[in-house]
Design goal:
about 450 residues; mainly alpha; globular
Length: about 450
């Protein structure tokens, strides 16, 4: 067997070490991909450009043609969709529509008195908001203001409330979420079709399992009453204006329109995801002009859409570009072929290989606290692995994507866990102690249900 893939595995291990050391993720992936492509060229590989891209005539220049091609494709395709969705979400935050939606959904819980029933319902309602507030940290901040006082008021401990809030964004099945869009693109499916046919059947089972687990785990630890509390950060109102309750309709309007004008309801008219987001954004700007009659203010808020797009290019889209370049290095050096051959030799098949790749994504997420970085690094491998094993890419990318959020809620170095821990006055390890069992159940249920339904 060629030495090339084994050299690349050594490079890959060093890459993992750098990520665990919390070195800059984008650059680590980019230069790891570069090193592996250099290794491939030194071993005589010359054909690593995507199909349809012509060589420059010099293989060393082709490396940068590859990076250019990947960047152009992402910025014009999935990357632009992610930026648009993020821009829309940022604008909904700015005008208070996201805050209104959270308040409308959470307010009914005030009428209940059973502490752990309220806790479970709060988790389910909070997770339903992921479809319109795809940022785990952003959703957690809103819930800390809206849900946390309700849970404390009915007698749930601060640690239990924090654990539930830290896990509400763990299963990113929103068609506007970055990892969900990347998964749909990788699987070659429309985001709404991917959501309904692949994500929701798995997500509903996982949510039910986690809700039941939260009930017993949080009740057990509250009865044990041995949490170590630290100085609690003051819970400040979310930096968003108060908006009318009917503004809660705006964040869900694009999803509603995309479902209506799709193969699921009416296929005579097809509404593109980006078009839906842009249309609703401009519609809401008009509503804001009518409501405030202050063009300077309204347009000042509206430009947040584009500012947020730029921020997402630097954080998410650039990371996806670097991760795809990294994946190209893995393919060029034969690591993907080695994985497929090893899986076939061990008799793993699609189910076993899905579990392996999902576990890798989960482990990297746990160690680094970054689900997007871990998932983006390996998502591009799914179509080749699925084709080599005679399966569907969607059956691999779905549990990989879910794992990137599930294991983040178990990581004491994840930003959302640290933020929630500080806000409720518990150490990150104290929060993780209460999230590890529910999220462990979520991980297992994800693999099992995905295997039953799609493999």
């Amino acid at each position: 067997m060629s030495l090339m893939p084994w050299l690349s595995i050594l490079v890959l291990c060093y890459c993992g070490y750098l990520l665990i050391q919390r070195k800059q993720t984008h650059m680590v992936l980019l230069f790891t991909g570069l090193v592996m492509l250099v290794i491939a060229i030194l071993f005589g590989v010359t054909n690593f450009l995507p199909k349809g891209v012509k060589t420059s005539g010099l293989v060393w220049f082709d490396i940068f043609d590859l990076l250019r091609t990947i960047s152009t494709k992402q910025v014009a395709g999935t990357g632009f969709l992610i930026m648009t969705a993020g821009g829309f979400a940022g604008y909904m935050d700015r005008i208070g529509a996201a805050k209104s939606l959270v308040n409308v959904c959470i307010n009914p819980l005030r009428k209940l008195s059973q502490p752990y029933v309220v806790l479970v319902l709060g988790y389910l309602i909070g997770h339903s908001l992921v479809t319109v507030i795809p940022s785990a940290a952003g959703l957690a901040m809103l819930l800390l203001v809206a849900l946390f006082p309700i849970l404390r008021g009915v007698g749930v401990s601060a640690a239990a409330a924090g654990a539930v809030i830290a896990t509400t964004g763990s299963i990113g099945f929103a068609p506007t979420a970055g990892t969900a869009n990347l998964a749909a693109k990788t699987a070659g499916l429309d985001p709404i079709i991917y959501l309904v046919q692949y994500q929701l059947p798995v997500a509903l089972c996982v949510l039910a399992a986690v809700a039941v687990t939260h009930y017993f785990v949080q009740k057990y630890y509250d009865n044990k009453n041995d949490d170590n509390y630290v100085e609690m950060q003051e819970l400040k109102p979310v930096d968003a204006p108060d908006a009318p309750a009917w503004y809660a309709l705006f964040p869900i309007l694009p999803i509603f329109l995309m479902i209506i004008f799709s193969k699921l309801v009416y296929s005579g008219i097809k509404l593109n995801t980006i078009s839906a987001l842009l249309m609703v954004w401009m519609f809401v700007v008009v509503i804001e002009l009518i409501r405030h009659r202050d063009m300077k203010k309204v347009f000042g808020d509206a430009i947040i859409f584009y500012k947020k797009m730029g921020a997402l290019f630097a954080s998410i889209v650039a990371l996806i570009i670097c991760a795809e370049f990294f994946a190209a290095g893995l393919k060029a050096t034969g690591v993907v072929s080695l994985l497929i051959d090893s899986a076939q030799g061990l008799g793993l098949g699609m189910g076993g290989m899905t579990a392996v790749l999902t576990s890798i994504v989960g482990a990297v997420t746990f160690l680094t606290g970054s689900g997007v970085g871990a998932y983006s690094s390996f998502a591009a491998l799914a179509p080749d692995v699925a084709a080599g094993l005679g399966g569907q890419a969607a059956a691999i990318v779905t549990p990989m994507q879910f794992a990137s959020g599930i294991l983040r809620a178990m990581s004491p170095v994840a930003g959302v866990v640290i933020a929630v821990a500080g806000a409720v006055g518990v150490s990150p390890r104290g929060i993780v102690r209460r999230t590890c069992i529910p999220m462990g159940v979520a991980f297992v249920v994800t693999l099992v249900v995905n295997w039953i339904l799609f493999i």
